[in-house]
Automatic annotation (TrEMBL):
One of its GO terms (biological process) is glutamate biosynthetic process. Residues 1-21 are annotated as: Disordered. InterPro entries: 4Fe4S_Fe-S-bd (IPR017896), DPD_II (IPR028261), FAD/NAD-bd_sf (IPR036188), FAD/NAD-binding_dom (IPR023753), Glut_synth_ssu1 (IPR006005), Glutamate_Synthase (IPR051394), Helical_ferredxn (IPR009051). Its EC number is 1.4.1.13. This is Glutamate synthase [NADPH] small chain. Keywords: 4Fe-4S, Amino-acid biosynthesis, Glutamate biosynthesis, Iron, Iron-sulfur, Metal-binding, NADP, Oxidoreductase. Pfam families: Fer4_20, Pyr_redox_2. It comes from Streptomyces harbinensis. Coiled coil: none annotated. Its cofactor is [4Fe-4S] cluster. Residues 38-69 form the 4Fe-4S ferredoxin-type domain. One of its GO terms (molecular function) is glutamate synthase (NADPH) activity. It is an enzyme of class 1 (oxidoreductase).
Length: 487
């Protein structure tokens, strides 16, 4: 156990962010590099080793949080990294990007600020890379079996790493020009610098995983043919179909899906463009959708030099504290101020967009909205609250409706969909088609990186069992039907 009195003597302290005015001038991560190391052992000492660690259940990976908190407290970074990797292939992604449902489930959080679990996690993995403790782990022997993984987001990468380490020959097919899925093209550099992905890809290549970029299964390679070529297939193609806003003026220039806008900025960071082909520079920007994707648009617009940034949300503003109907240890919907919000802009709640207005050249200029309220459980416009706000760039960040069904992947494989339009699977992550498995957002629907990694690991176990016909030694963190105490 870490310090038995740590939670009594030490208050919660988190990573220090760079001043907003400074950090919007660059694309680097928002935190002061190295700010965690001097404080993190004391922070880890706040873990009470409470006996029934609800944080294990809060974390979809079942991370062994009290164990690595203890090692972090003792500054035994090598042992801490070993415990961390026992359940998580990519803690540098979750340690930076996870909304930390574990902290909502922390027992200390019942009546005090929770342990800074996510900050401990990222410190352990950053120290491990620095110390050279993260090395390739190629398999001892090869099984002679082959697996194709479709999609290189966190689910595909986790499945591929687990299956390669189990001795199978794994090729990852990715339609984009670079590996990483939404980690690469979606999540901005200021939330996670892409060098972290590159480092992991190198490790995976050294272990034997093969990567094929610029290949779209269902278009460049027929899905059924791919199935014949490999002994098993994992579909980890994400839930990339974005929800649209079919209101008058949607067709105007300057109204874009968030995922048409954000990846271009990622590509600037990769050196593909000098300036993004869609940029907020000098424009009044309106982001429709109050979630994380919307916040990423806000932070990106700030860095591109927007004249103003307004984020609209149809739902009412969440409460600052845990609502009564979302008690500990659930992951509550509360008002969050992300790093992008600290940097400026306005957030407007309980409003609905009625239409867009453009100039004679077809460029969007104004967004018309109306305030809404719940009447008989339905969001209803409030008469007399119509108004318009300047909008020269509009991004739609209203969520995703499921996996891409236009490219033929679903039809060619013949996989069934569930009632929500996601690829249906059983408790082993197997679809209705023999030898075809599914992991991550493609099966779960739009979710989180931590769930994608957890599902990739679990699906790998199902594949391993299918290929060997024997119980798998790979761990099984979550089942698709699990209803953990998390998002
Ligand atoms: C802008 C944005 C910000 C986000 N921020 C966070 C965050 O901060 N924290 C968090 O936890 N979650 C965040 N999320 C959610 C998170 O990124 C996803 O839940 C996660 O990436 C899902 O992983 P995945 O591997 O299932 O799919 P994805 O990451 O979507 O990867 C799927 C990959 O499959 C490829 N693909 C699709 N079809 C084919 C095909 N036919 N052939 C070949 N390749 C194909 C795609 O190109 C893509 O690269 C964010 C999402 C978005 C959109
Ligand atoms: S992966 Fe997320 S939920 Fe799990 S320990 Fe890390 S921050 Fe917490």
């Amino acid at each position: 156990m870490a310090d038995p009195k740590g939670f009594l003597t030490t208050g919660r302290e988190t990573a220090t962010s760079r001043p907003p005015a400074e950090r919007v001038k660059d694309w680097n991560e928002v935190y002061v590099p190295g700010s965690l190391l001097p404080i993190i052992s004391k922070q880890a000492s706040r873990c009470m080793d409470c006996g029934i660690p609800f944080c294990h259940n809060g974390c979809p990976l079942g991370n062994l949080i009290p164990e690595w908190n203890d090692y972090a407290y003792r500054e035994d970074w090598t042992a801490a990294s070993e415990r961390l990797h026992a359940t998580n292939n990519f803690p540098e992604f979750t340690g930076r990007l996870c909304p930390a449902p574990c902290e909502s489930a922390c027992v200390l959080g019942i009546n005090q600020p929770a342990v800074t679990i996510k900050n401990v996690e990222v410190t352990i993995i950053d120290k491990a890379w620095e110390a050279g403790d993260v090395t390739p782990q190629p398999p001892q022997r090869h099984s002679g079996k082959t697996v194709a993984v479709i999609g290189s987001g966190p689910a595909g990468l986790a499945a591929a790493q687990q299956l390669t380490r189990a001795g199978h020959t794994v090729a990852v097919y990715e339609r984009a020009d670079r590996i990483g899925g939404l980690l690469r093209y979606g999540i901005p550099e200021f939330k996670m610098e892409k060098r972290h992905i590159n480092r992991r890809i190198e490790q995976m290549r050294a272990e034997g995983t093969k990567f094929r970029t610029g290949v779209e299964i269902g278009r460049d390679i027929d899905a059924a043919k791919l199935r014949k070529r490999y002994d098993a297939v994992v579909i980890a193609a994400g839930a990339t179909t974005a929800r649209d806003l079919p209101v008058p003026g949607r067709e105007l220039n300057g109204v874009h899906q968030a995922m048409e806008y954000l990846p271009l900025s990622n590509k600037v960071q990769e050196g593909d463009y000098i300036t993004a082909p869609i940029t907020a520079e000098g424009k009044h920007v309106v982001v429709i959708g109050g979630g994380d994707t919307g916040a990423d648009c806000v932070g990106t617009a700030h860095r591109q030099g927007a004249a103003s940034v307004t984020q609209l949300e149809i739902m009412p503003r969440p409460s600052d504290t845990r609502p009564g109907h979302q008690p500990w240890p659930t992951f509550p919907m509360t008002y969050k101020v992300t790093s992008a919000h600290e940097e400026g802009g306005e957030r407007v709640y309980s409003v609905s967009t009625t239409h867009f207005e453009g100039d004679e050249d077809g460029n969007v200029q104004w967004l018309h909205l109306v305030e809404v309220e719940f009447i008989d459980g339905k969001l209803t416009p409030k008469p007399g609250t119509e108004r318009k706000i300047p909008a020269q760039l509009v991004t739609l960040a209203m969520g995703f409706t499921g996996t891409d069904q236009e490219n033929g992947l679903v039809r060619q494989f013949g996989v069934d969909l569930d009632a929500r339009g996601n690829i249906a699977r059983d408790a082993d992550y197997a679809t209705n088609v023999d030898g075809v498995f599914v992991a991550g957002d493609a099966g779960r629907g739009q979710s989180l990186i931590v769930w994608a990694i957890a599902e990739g690991r679990a699906a790998a176990r199902g594949v391993d069992r299918y290929l060997t016909g024997a119980p798998s030694a790979l761990p099984y963190p979550v089942r698709p039907t699990d209803r953990a105490l998390t998002v």
